[in-house]
Each structure stands twice: as C-alpha cells, then as structure tokens.
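Backbone geometry:
***
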Amino acid sequence: MSHGEGEDDLVLEAREMLATGRDEEEVFAELATHTSDWGASALAVCLALGVPRTDAEARIRQTRPGAGRSW
C-alpha cells in the first residue's frame, strides 16, 4: 500500500476516534464502512495504535483474503 494524503487522513481520523475511547474494532468498522477499503482501514487503525508500518502491512497481508497478493 502506498503512503498518501488520504491515508494520512484515515490515520488521523482513527487516532481521533481512539482518543475518545472507542475500541479498535469499532474504529476499523467505521472506517471500512466509509472507505469500502478493508486494507486501508486496517492499516490506519494499526498506525494510529503505533504499530510500525512494516509490521502492520505484513500482518494485514497474512490475514487478507487472497494473502500473498500485492496491494
């Protein structure tokens, strides 16, 4: 997944929701509903939680349907 302005906005939105006490699953679900992009939503939540990008991307690839495909 390439790093871009839209991604920065998602991470910021995830951080803001987490800061209000919402849990990770709820934040992911809301982002995924708005963006229709499972991978971008999962990555945004991971980055907002402080997971290093390379670790987050590797985890997402492992759990994503069709694992092994590139973004």
User: Anything to note?
Assistant: Residues 16 and 48 are 9 Å apart (CA to CA).
